[in-house]
Amino acid sequence: MILKDPSLSDNPNLDCRATYEPDKEPALPIMLPVSECLRRCPNYEGSHVNVLSQWIGPLVGFLLPALAFVISIPRSIRLPRGESLFGARKLKSIPYFLVAIFLMMFDVIFWIITVFAFAGPLIAGATHEALIDHAVLDYAEKALATEPEIALMAVTFSLIGSLKPDKGDMAGKVSAYIVESPHAKRKLQALLSLLPSYGARVGVPIVFYVGAYFYAIFDASAKRGDNDTAHAVAFGLWYGVVVIVAIVSSSVLGVDNPASLEAVFSENVPTNLDPNGPRTSNPLPVRTHTHPYHFHDSHFHTVWMWKRARVFQEWTKYFPLDPLIGSKINSVTPRIVSGLLASILVALPCAGACWISYQTPEIGFGCRSVAHLIYATSQMVLIGAWWTYYSSGFRIRETHHQQRLTLTSIPTYAISAVAVLAAVVSAIGGTIMQLVGVFRNCLCKASLQYLLPKNRWQGTVNLANDTQAHRDHAKWWIIVGSIGVGFIGLVSLVGWGYQARIRSRCRRIIEGL
Predict the structure, then answer these.
(1) Which domain holds residue 304?
(2) How many domains are there within the chain?
(3) What does 20-72 look like in DSSP terms, one character per residue?
(4) What is the pLDDT of residues 337-359, one digit of tens each?
(5) The pTM is what?
(6) Mind telling me which residue stretches traverse the membrane in this protein (predicted)?
(7) Label partner for 286 (CA 20 to 30 A): which of 75, 331, 390, 411?
(8) Do 510 and 185 meet the contact criterion of CB atoms below 8 Å apart?
(9) Cβ-based neighbours of 337, under 8 Å, separated by 6 or more
(10) Is 327 within the bounds of a domain?
(11) What is the pLDDT of residues 434-462, one digit of tens each?
(12) Is residue 497 part of a domain?
């Protein structure tokens, strides 16, 4: 540029590393052809340890709080850590402690990848469970005065319907030790009180996430020329998908810890409110079998959140539910509604993140915005596969042991596998590349339309920071980021209100039995 215009040699605004200052003129754009940029810098610019906005922002501000959300999401299996070995002698327990730490870290990483990969089906499954709970409690309220037995079975199903009915003879024990028990009302009250509160599961992580995000937006307003800060805001909004998964999964009514149900099965409870009063003599059902890979120490099995639609369908075969309740469970309407809601809840944060990265100069679909787009598309595909799988008339009619591959299930599995791979690569791979700095290369700065060599002759890369284009488009970082965090905050309030209301309704029905 100086060779073409020597007068620019003394211009203070010609600075590749200019930083934003309100009373300072924006830097002049310094353009370089894409082919020349690739010739001089064929690799990427790694993140610098002393430049905190390049890696510490998304890592501490959003990724670490996401771990707290991931841990609160119910799951079925975990890696066994051999806790019994911690009671051995020191020479044996200390080395195994290191092994246990490695297993724990691997287990957490596996669960993070799983939540990112299956966020759409997780949200769809939890939303479907919430809709079923609402419909079942509606029916229980109507039947409470005239048919209390049906209301009792409906409330019982709403609490334990998330567990497998055929494992550990769950359906038979529920009928014998709850529905037919003279202490059914008191047991249901105890079971409801054992459910963890919304605040205990996700309340504190939400506060930290929202606080960190508001700080990132405030920081972005003070660093309008810093692309790394803008992309940190985009990635923080993208991680909001995990926050929404935790919010929705914490709002449902079903039991997540089956071990607490075993204590409720016991008939050894007071026959009146006097704790010293007479007790019955029926013992707690004997535990028959547990598995080291089960997340909870119980012979009753939990299921993945996305599989609960299938478990609800199985309960209609194992448990004497009213036919009208069975028709509500097998109805296609809740699955359609939950699929649409899940699509919206996933699409909005991803769209906001994609828009922020798209509007960060150079304008266009760069590596980050394409990663957001691929992830959102993969989740839409997985939500569609979830709906197709659990809306199959064949799978509704047959039991789990009779399932086999069909003409529709084979392409569903194949498309789902591709979508899962795309979700993992875009989410986990995209996060690692953002932290390491792989996205800071010539092609990602210029946009991916110049990916093919034949298109690079007309492409340019802007090497300057804090140009007028940066300042003009920085408003989108703040506006879209603020709307995004407001949306996630609204979802958290709706989840909190729904959980409080559904538990209050359940408590009133139990007291009316």
Answers:
(1) 27-270+293-511
(2) 1
(3) --TTSPPBPP-EEEHHHHHHH--S--PPPTT-HHHHHHHIIIIIHHHHHHHHH
(4) 999 999 999 999 999 999 998 98
(5) 0.86
(6) 55-73, 94-119, 198-218, 230-253, 336-358, 370-390, 410-439, 476-498
(7) 75
(8) yes
(9) 127, 131
(10) yes
(11) 888 888 888 888 888 888 888 887 788 88
(12) yes
